[in-house]
Amino acid sequence: MAEIIASITLAEQIASIALLVSIGSVLYMQRAIKLSVQPNLNIDHNFASPEKMFVRVRNDGIGPARIIKLKVSFKNVFKEHNSDNGWKYVSNERKQFRVEFTKYSFKPGDSIIAGNAINLIALKTSGNLGKIEKEVKDFLLFVSDIKFEIKYESFDKKLQESESWDGSKENLFGKF
Predict the structure, then answer these.
(1) Contact 114, 64 (CB under 8 A)
(2) Are residues 104 and 167 located together in one domain of the fold?
(3) What are phi and psi of 159, to 5 degrees?
C-alpha cells in the first residue's frame, strides 16, 4: 500500500486535490444559487382612486412562488366551498354592502413569477359619477372585514413563511 502512495507523483496529488476543490466549489455554487432564487410574497393595497382600488399580492423575490393555499376570510370566518378558497362565502357576505368586485382565486400549484403582481380583489364601479362615492365607501367597509392568507413555497419545494393581510384600519389607512 505504501508503494502505491509513494508512486503517486506530486503532480497527480495536486490534480486530485484540485479536482476535489472544484467539485466542492460546484456543489457550493449550486446550493448558493438555490438559496438565492427564493420568492418573497407581499400583499398590499392601493385605494388612491376608484379606478385603482385593489388588494394585490406581489412577488418581490428573485424566484417564482408556487401557491399551496389561498384562504379568504370574512370577519375572521373561513368557509370553503369546493376548493374556492372561501370566495363563495365572501361573495355572499358582500350582498349587504352592495359591492361589485373582481377577484382572483389561486389553485394549488399556481405560481407567481418574480416581479409580477396579481389583484386578489378590485373594486368594480358602475361608472355612474353619482354612485361612485358610495361604491368606494361600501368597498372600503367590505374590505375592512376581509383577510387574505397565502401559503406558498419556492420551486425547490422549500416552504416559505405565509403571507397575510387583513383589512384592519391600520392596514387600510396607516397608523392613526
Answers:
(1) yes
(2) yes
(3) -65, 130
Q: Are residues 87 and 130 in the same domain?
A: yes
48 and 131: one domain? yes
Q: How many domains does the chain have?
A: 2
Give the CATH number for residue 136. Answer: 2.60.40
Residues 148-164 as b/e (b if ≥16 CB within 10 A, e otherwise) read bbbbbbbeeeeebeebe
Torsion sign, CA atoms 152, 115, 80, 97: positive
Query: Does residue 34 register a pLDDT over 70?
Result: no
Helix (H, G, I), strand (E, B) or coil at 120: strand
Which domain range does residue 14 map to? Answer: 2-34
User: 12 and 74 share a domain?
Assistant: no
Burial of 57 (0-12, 13-18, 19+ CB in 10 A): buried
Same domain membership, residue 164 and residue 83: yes
- Helix, strand, coil in percent for the chain, rounding step 5: 40, 30, 35
- Reported as a single tens digit per residue, the pLDDT across 93-140 is 888 888 889 999 999 999 999 999 999 999 998 888 888 889 999 999
CA angle 138-144-149, nearest 5°? 130
